[in-house]
Each structure stands twice: as structure tokens, then as C-alpha cells.
Design brief:
Blueprint (H helix, E strand, L loop, with lengths): L2 H22 L3 H18 L5 H24 L8 H18 L9 H26 L1
Helix pairs in contact: 1-3, 1-4, 3-4, 3-5, 4-5
């Protein structure tokens, strides 16, 4: 793989991380309005969906994508592609929840860090498995 292709992967990863941080920097009323609008749509298909569950699914999903993007970036490194995405994902989750401590109406939650890390691990593991399958 060319270096420019790998730097492109890094750029996409960092852009996705910036999107996560942008969402975390939204004040609570704005964030609630966004998820409330999405909840109304989702409940047409899943009437049992709650705002809390939807927000937790969003946490997991956005970090699963981040884990997959980081794993794709680190796929060409010497060591396995799982440890580095997990380390970068841990930093991202911790800094994301710390950022929320300074946003009006928001709070950083340790439980969200764990949920985010589970998402990173699943996304990275999926890319790692695909990489292993394609390699053999």
C-alpha cells in the first residue's frame, strides 16, 4: 500500500473523531433535540426504542466506526492492528467524556467510556478478522 493511501485513512479517522467531538460539544438542549428527532423516526420501526437506548446505541456505533477506521489505518504496521486502535480509542473516549464535563447540561460518564471502548474493540476486531481472512 502506498503511504498516501495510508495517510488518507488517517485523515478519514481524524475527521470522524472530529465529528464525534463536535457532537459532544453540543449543549444538552441541542443534543436532546437531535436525538429526539431521530427517536421519532426510529420508533416508527422500533416502537419500544427509548431515547436513552438510542443514545447508547449511537455511542457504541460511532466508536465502532472509529475503531474500524483506526484498525484500517494500522493494518499495515508491523504489529497486530488491535492494540493500537484500542489505545487510540481509549484516548478518544476519555477525552470525549472529559470534553462533555465543560459543556452546559452535559456530563462525562465513565460508563460511556466503557461503552465507547466496546464499540472500538468490535470495530477493530471486525477489520482485523477481515484482514486475516483476506490474507489467507
Amino acid at each position: 500500500m502506498k503511504k498516501s493511501q495510508n495517510w488518507w485513512r488517517l485523515a478519514v479517522s481524524l475527521l470522524w473523531l472530529a465529528l464525534i467531538y463536535f457532537q459532544s460539544a453540543l449543549p444538552a438542549p441541542t443534543s436532546q433535540a437531535e436525538s429526539g428527532g431521530l427517536l421519532a423516526v426510529v420508533q416508527t420501526v422500533f416502537p419500544w426504542m427509548t431515547n436513552l437506548l438510542l443514545r447508547k446505541i449511537a455511542h457504541f456505533t460511532e466508536y465502532a466506526v472509529l475503531g474500524a477506521l483506526f484498525a484500517a489505518f494500522f493494518a499495515r504496521t508491523r504489529n497486530p492492528i488491535l492494540l493500537k486502535p484500542l489505545a487510540f480509542g481509549a484516548f478518544a473516549a476519555l477525552s470525549d467524556e472529559t470534553l462533555q464535563l465543560f459543556v452546559p447540561g452535559r456530563s462525562g460518564q465513565l460508563s460511556d467510556v466503557w461503552l465507547d471502548m466496546a464499540g472500538v474493540a468490535c470495530g477493530a476486531l471486525l477489520v482485523w478478522l477481515i484482514h486475516k481472512i483476506r490474507k489467507h
